[in-house]
Amino acid sequence: MSDNVDNNTKVDYTPFGKLPDHLLVEIFVRVPVSEWAQISCVKRQWANVFRGECLWQAALTRTYPLAHQTKRWPGPIPRGLSRRRYTALYVSKRIFALDGEMDEIVGHAYLFLKEQLEFSDTPSTSSILHGTIIDQFIACGKSRDIAHELASQIWLAVLDNLADNDLTFLILKRLALEGDVFLPYPYTKSIKVQWKVFEKLFTDFRDCFNHVDYYDVLGCAKNKFQPIPSAWLGY
């Protein structure tokens, strides 16, 4: 090696190191999605490919060829760019097993709710989040009954897929302690959704409670459900 080469510079002599971005895109979209995170960490060029729009446009066309026929929809939850659309369709397929005209919108509603709960600096109340999802489906022509059912499925899926950490405990506790606001059907939250919040708190996160918090949440549970499971009792 020449003395002019910086010893700290890593030179990639493999065939992959010489490929332009458009060829890398064609290769990467054929690799299983489960390996994309690892691939994007191999080198800076590859990370930039995964951050770019071209790869996600190609992946969207290859994996969901009918996605380009989907028109933009009305409502408060936007469609976003190719990466967002790909993620929404992937969620709909993997979590909800949907395959129809509403599958992408369900995925977007799921991403919206999960991000609002986990990453929002000023989180909205659950009633506002729930109402936003209901409004999205009604704006897209779904009946009140279907909008209510889809929103319930999305809430249950998000609650089941929150990380098992202290942040999730705080999110669930906030949801449990939120005061009930009377709203007409279909904006009322499903009893299954309300039950899931307390069930996760009293089973998966029981050890996170202090004495005061436990009895505050237990009091809310007793006001909502009668009788409550014996497994929820006992601090």
Automatic annotation (TrEMBL):
The protein's name in its UniProt record: F-box domain-containing protein
Organism: Populus deltoides (Eastern poplar)
Pfam family, one: F-box-like
Residue stretches making up the F-box domain: 13-59
